[in-house]
């Protein structure tokens, strides 16, 4: 029997079967039904690599508790409670999901990696584009996230989920263009497709289509970050209080990471990049100290590692089933958003390396349980 070809995209996420958000089971089952639909349209396109982080002992495992057998290629890696505790995990943060995503990324098999969550549904425009297998190793890809009222749509399947989401949108997380941690645009069913910020500067990289926007001239922009920083230091050096004030302004604003139109909003919900790019930056930052804005580091790091950004446009979005997040309150955060921005700027100015992890990222030196797999079940059954 001939070996099955490798998938084109490894779909990555980290979770645990703990009922998070109040409707976790419904959201995961809807996710499976949605991708089952696309699995049949583009067979062999995707594998699904799960990281079951610190699984609760009172519930079934992540792969046993849901209908993953409906997908053709699924593997689940388990990070045990003992490993969780050994790297600084605690009861207040039972899941270190970005480390878990790194666990899955390092063990993925496809040349491209799509990092999402179990309640994200890429629109049909995105899925058809991925089905062309025409991604470029020059880019990392981002999509606006559109939150929608999950509500009565929890039992739908396939394109019905997208139809429900497009008729019940709440908010679109769009490309930031000014100093703000997040820009949310409330939307309704009539205008969600056109609610992205404009104008955009760059090039359309999909020939004959307005599906993708690329942040071209990336190399020059990376050099510009250092040049502007040196210019501001020279211009305001020794100018007393005025220099302190405006020197800092130049330091933050002239070199502000959003100058490069990097789309960091909700990037942990849709982040698509070549596998080699994750290898080059050593994955997402692995911190037990902070959670918010961790995903933004990958955008900045890949940009500085030589990869340009490509943004999906129009109705090519990532729909997100909105849910309760009250349990995030009280999570320890050691850094403010402004402090994260300082680090982003330092990376862009090459004052700090874009690699923030050691070479053992993704718990490469830890004992991870062998994967439970539903790989190619349909092929075996026939």
Structure description:
By secondary structure, this protein is an alpha/beta fold. Helix content is 31%, strand content 18%. The protein has eleven helices and 15 strands. The strands form two sheets. A ten-stranded mixed beta sheet has the order 10-11-13-6-12-4-1-2-3-15. Strand 1, helix 1 and strand 2 form a beta-alpha-beta unit. The longest helix has 19 residues. The protein starts with 8 loop residues before the first strand and ends with a helix. The relative contact order is 0.19. The C terminus is likely disordered.
Keyphrases for this structure?
globular; alpha/beta; 15 strands; disordered C terminus; 382 residues
Describe what is shown at a glance.
The protein has helices at residues 24-41, 81-86, 97-106, 124-131, 159-167, 218-236, 240-254, 275-281, 294-304, 337-348, 377-381, and strands at residues 9-15, 46-53, 74-79, 112-116, 120-122, 139-142, 145-148, 169-173, 184-186, 203-204, 212-214, 270-274, 308-312, 318-321, 369-373.
Order of strands across the biggest sheet? 10-11-13-6-12-4-1-2-3-15
Mean pLDDT: 78
**What is the radius of gyration computed over CA atoms, rounded to a whole number of angstroms?**
21 Å
Cα-to-Cα separation, first versus last residue? 12 Å
Number of helical runs?
Answer: 11
Please count the beta strands (DSSP E, at least 2 residues each). 15
Give the overall form.
Answer: globular
Helix content: 25-40%
Order of helices and strands: EHEEHHEEHEEHEEEEHHEHHEEHEH
Largest sheet: 10 strands, mixed
Structural class given helices, strands, pairing?
Answer: alpha/beta
Instruction: List low-confidence stretches.
Output: 177-182, 197-209, 228-256, 376-382
Strand content: 15-25%
